[in-house]
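Two proteins, back to back. First:
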Amino acid sequence: MRGGTGIRLRSQASKRGISLLSFLIPLFILWAGCGKKGPPVSLDRIVPKAITDLEASVREERVILQWSLPQENMDGSKLVDLLGFKVLRGSFDGEECKGCPERLVPIAEVDLASGEGYLTKDDRVFWVDKGLRAGRTYGYRVLAFNRRGHFSQESNKVEVLWDIPPPPPKQLRAVAGDGMVELEWAPVEEAVGYNLYRGVVEGDFPLHPLNPEPIEDTHHRDTGVVNDRDYRYTVRSVSKAGKTLIEGSSSTRIIVTPVDLIPPSPPTGVVAFPLSQGVELTWSANPEPDVVGYRVYRRRVFEGEFERLTDEMVRGTIYLDRGVGRDEEYDYGVTAIDGSRHQNESAFSEIVRVKYIYIQ
């Protein structure tokens, strides 16, 4: 009986040892495999990075907020589940409220899945706030949130002092030139400057004006245009309330087409050679990059008018005149033509004279 009991006790102890070992081995493997990486991050702790470039501008009785789309989470991982944004706003009377506690409350939610109530361009989000009261300062912050409903920290804060915008400028005029447009408009008494917008005829005006800062004068020269292309222009008055620039509504819109009316310089280096087939003329290529061809003119010596020898432009810098008579004396001139809509033609080159006598 004692022997049998001892066997049973050892057997039970062995079983307990094996069970303990089977529990410790997976625990050791788990500890060894994860010790260097640290504990796994809970999905509840992965939130978008806070927005740091929130901006605000006042245009046409509206506050326009804009900020960049966040690309990363707080842990540095790529943000792939961004769902939208929450806009917070607070306000107080006057320009400053030093020592006032910040009381921003949610006023809107931007749902990226809906595609409504906002605009995105160049990885930036634009949102408009309306119905504001003159003489009040409004503060804004924005929070991003993901599909699990987890919010980022609050963005930087922006403040604007809203006021009644100035009236639009009148009498907008434009004069087109070569690669430029001269614009002028009547002054607005309430304005401290003006914002000028340029767009193509088929599209909308851009979100930002041509000028980085308000134009203090009532005229502007736009040199960032291409000849023979149609452009639309409008100008808006800008007033100032405290530190906030207030932009008014648009003036009338005008369409302008810059044109090249300046001809190329006359060709140089014209030389004439009598050959068996006729008189060959050569000249140097013009330095202007927009020159697309040349025209050759001829007259008999002592005749009054030059005649053009070809209906089509000469594309190179060599031409053979086969319509000459033996022992006749001729004057030749060459002009350059540019590629503008008007095909501006230069003045004559230096006139060269040659007598057609060919000796083999």
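And the second protein:
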Amino acid sequence: MHLEEITAKVIEVSKQAGTFIRQERKTFAADKIEYKGLNDLVSYVDKTAEEIIVRGLESILPEAGFITEEQTTTKLGVRYNWIIDPLDGTTNFIHGLPVFSVSIALKEYDELVVGVVYEVNLDECFYAWKGAPAYLNGKEINVSIAPTIGDSLLATGFPYYDFNKQAQYIALFTHLMKSCHGLRRLGSAAVDLAYTACGRFDAYYEYNLNPWDVAAGIVIVRQAGGHVVNFSGGDEILDSRELLATNGKLTDEMLEAIKEYFK
């Protein structure tokens, strides 16, 4: 099956899950919240959405395995593995803040080849596959052309349970805050990456990330013409749990700042 055809089917699955999430948000109650760890929230919505996604993806590539946030399946594939976050931005969802998304990526051996991020509230579906442009709701998208940090709107994520690097993070944050048009924290890494891909953000950085947070967005940013690296400038992102995504023009300047403050 061609990657374009696979992507089209993944989009359908992501929207099925998104429809469920959108409906549940209307009646969601705080007593349905569970805690996986400090400030690490989950609910039946995450788990059921993941089950919907897994069932849908199994029909696309029966031989594929899964790397999922909620671990509703532990099947691993040899050649293909789906990387899934059924609800990226759970804390936003629980509190009624309308920034959350479905994130689905396909990895062939060690290479990410398909990425779909469906932002539920605005009904915006960002997607890309290896060898093709990136798209938003059928329209081709590209990263921005901002040449410097001084011309840029940046995005980041705040640490919410691992505070060992908080001092370095705040120092970097302070430096960038004084240097750019503004810094935003939306609460969904998948959306941050999608927005970088379409030029709403010029760069996004965060640490302590999981593969399901970022795998789909990495594909979309790269196919939209951007760069995605770790804090050392390397390509090992999923294992390093660090990520810098830029429009390509800001990579060196952002890395210089990160390496100075985030040691």
